[in-house]
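Problem 3 from the worked examples.
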Amino acid sequence: MTGTPSLSAREWYERAIAAEQRGAKDEAERIITQGLGEHPNEAALHDSAGNLAMRRGEYALAAQRFAAAARLSPSHLPFAINVAIAQTQAGAPEAALAALVPHEQAGRRDARYCSTRANAARLAGDLAQAARWYDLCLTLDPNHPRGLAGRARVALERAERDALARIDLALRSQQSDPHLWLSRAQALDATGHTAEARALAQQIADQAPSWQPGLDFLAQLRLGAGESDFASHFEDAARKAPGDPNIAIAHIAALGAGDETLAARERATAARAAFPGIEQFALLEAVYASAVGEDERAERAMAALSTDSLDRALHEARHALRTANWVGAEAALARAREFAPFDVSAWALTGLLWRVTDPEKAAWLHEQEGLVQLLPLVDGDAVMPPAIALLGRLHDSSAFPLGQSLRGGTQTRGILFDRTEPTLADLKGAILSTVESYRETLPARDPTHPLLRYRSTKWRLNGSWSVRLRSGGDHHAPHIHPQGILSSALYLMLPPPDKDGSQGTLELGRPAPDLRLDLPPLHRIAPKEGHLALFPSTLYHGTTAFGSGMRMTTAFDVIARGGLGDGTDDDGSRLE
């Protein structure tokens, strides 16, 4: 823009703030945008514009504006910190770390930098780095609220022995923080103080009836205790806050996760009547009506929707598969892939459809040589015995998880490889080496394939856990892991073999029973101790039951570093 600016940068900012304070947010945005156009080289104005966007919840826009300020004043540490905070809020913690690393030398003397970097590292899945930066933050400022709370949370997620003490320390100055109280309840549960955890979780639900994390955790505890009415406290919460639709949404989700599908449908129908202006309840009624076979009700509810979304397209595809409407399923899945071209759930359902309608495409998706492998664990003889001993102790204090594929058995809490025990670090290292061997033998990179498009990108683990099943019917129901590109099962302990070797078999490609598709597995893997099964996350998978003994596995998902949508890097980097 040329000519003399009509207003100074400061005046543009003051006008925008005045508009914001009187509630005219759109006007404030128009003013600050015009000001940026007249003063494109004013770093402070870009920074102020970023703060306006942050207060509106437009985090990606805020990150862009903070980044512009940082480019204009590259040595100004607060601008870099603001970039990282906005990127973290926008769901890009790795980008936040990249923005902070060049300022490390100056940042080590700044508690806000240290706390921001620690939070980004935690959300990026690097808890060891997060612990280091939170510790440095607290060295600089022992009473830093975010540092205390963040370090306590990291201690809980890593199962550090002093996690409860750290949480209590943070609570001394942050008594009103519900996340810290929930962390305390989780720490009590993890250390075997189940009754205290239950009492605290109930107190949280009573005092914050609209807070979903508290309601969900109480449901988990009640399910673990074997209570058939594990979700009844959602009704208590709804009576205390009758105008809050989010309680009903959380209640329906908990019932669905606990396999109470008919109850979930009934609750969705009631919520739809209570909140007629909220379309999500029509979608939820359709979802659960379809799942229990009430097809006409499902179709009526779906027809009442006026907006489209990935979630709607996926559920319409599931319903079409259940009713053998192949044309409708293809149309719904095409819409889903338009919303998210490499969504794992969409491709999993597409694979099932193609097995009925286009076997050649189905074979390309899931039957190419090398996509499914059973490999010996690298250094298995050395790393497995201590891991088995440790995991056995962890399972002794674990419970049946809400919303998982288990039918019986126990699953370890949290992310297994975030724990600090050296034994688990050794096991993780062996797994990473084995996964790298898998990747080296995959077919060539194919940018149109939901797994092979990532063949040459950086990979990292995303979630990890251990499952222990006992004889008498314990098994995994067919399911998928929609947050990964590659899924797994490492066999640590197996029951004695039966005569035909079929017990506990891993079945890949058998649909979930609720989809009403009579399709056999594409692959059957007989478990073998010390071996790691690896397969595309777009394959439904489950296990058969076994007649005697006990079975223990460790599992994890793999994602492309940067997320499921990142498939353009072809540098051949190794797994991280």
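Problem 4, a separate protein:
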Amino acid sequence: MSNGITPDEQNNNPSEIPCPLCNEMVRSGLVRCWNCGSFMREDIAEAYRKMQENPAPMIFSQLPEETENPEEEQSRSSIATMTGYSDRDDDDFELDKSIAVTEYEASDDDFQLTGDLDSSQDDQKTIPLAREESEVEARQHEEQEEEAEAPATEEKAKKIAEAPAEDHSVATGGDVLFNVAIEEEKEEKRRRKGGGRRRRRRGGKVEGGIVVYCPNGHRIRVREEYRGAAGKCPACSVVYLVPRAVPSEQQAEQPEAAEGQEVTEGSDGFDAGAYSHWLKGIKLHAIDPTKLKLKPNSLEKAFTTVDLAISPEKMLVLVVAKAGLLGGGSKDKLDKARAEIAAHLREEKEEAEIPAASVQTVTAEQISKLRVVFPTMYDHESVFAGVPVFGKGRIAIALPKQEDSKENQYLTFSLSEYRKLTEALSEFFGIDQLGQDSGIPLTDQMQQVTCHYSEESFEVLDNENLEFYEADPEIELTLAGRQCQGCQLIVSEDSRKKERIGGKTGKGIAKTKCPKCNEKFGNISLYQLAKTEVPAEAAAE
């Protein structure tokens, strides 16, 4: 790499010398080149290489045996121990037998009743109330402790007086000083553990009971009678609470059973006073006509779950709870909210104060103008041109349009939900013709057919309305037979199994030849409503 400097200029400027590797001008006296980092002198480079090959050995110094601050020495030793064992696994550790795990026993003096606890009268009978000692009692206790310690002090002084005189060097040498140091260390530990105070315990050792921990982690054993009370830790005097007894499983199941029974009673209609008809889990679709896409199932998932509370005067569209991250609350939360709303309506309180996420009122005059928008008799009369945008087998009713809103609102129902709605409208408002001209089966329409093989007659559902039954999760269907698409031959499911038409399970029946017209059988299925089995005891009653 050249910098454009001629040799004459280099000789005229003795303060700079060229780098032997990159030929850049470097100020004289520098060890390395500023451009490439190479050594300017060969002897320095050789010394650096030798130093890298033979590094100087590490020198470890010994720790001092004694320090003036024992706490600092103990902290330093604990840090060294933690550093030395930080890379080991947990399986390598064992509890040192020299470490004693202390368990304190709570006495009657350690307990007091706190005002924050909601204790019943039965619990309060078994909880002793602590009281503060007066100055006279505290002075008496101190005198008793001094009298108890006085004989021991006199006896110790007597032994010292009777002991033979020893030289000062013998009395202060070797084992004597070591024993004194051990006694001082024990005294220091007792002072740290008990705070320099001694407590009187009554009642002896606590047998059985429960084990609790104070906020500082001290293990304390407490008798059962102190459940629900507050006590002071014998080690650190910090207040702790003794937990109440956990109810047995049988007692816990009883409230749950009662709650479940209460929910079951209000599953179809809560006791909401005049609102005797209550429909749960109805889908409410808010649609902007300018953004509508006429595709099957395009609006199937764009809905809000609401409840309908119907009275002789109005219908309330209730959003029971706000939708969360998963679309709504749990079943117990929703049932609890419904019970609160029903109690509010039963007490005939203000409608504006109904405890629901949102409330929309449909008056009796507006209910009389409700109409079915899907399905319709003719597709060109439908807003949706006969396309099942809400899903196959769903029934849609248009709600009155709200003011200052660009969206149209539609309630969609399954067949069983729609039948409950028409029952309520017929009872309160005399509306019997809603949806009759739309092909909706308000009642089960059956037809009588005869099997070609067994010549037995049986009833099946009308296939024209079958999609409403198939889309309803509350209705269960059973396969009753098959029908030929060419000659309309009927074969019951029992006969099909006996004759092996379409195989053992009937999967290949669409390509099987009909025994009458010798054409492909097709895949027309005939269904019946599943029969609910009545228990023998209930039938006898």
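Solution to problem 4. The CA atoms of residues 45 and 51 lie 10 Å apart. The mean pLDDT is 75.
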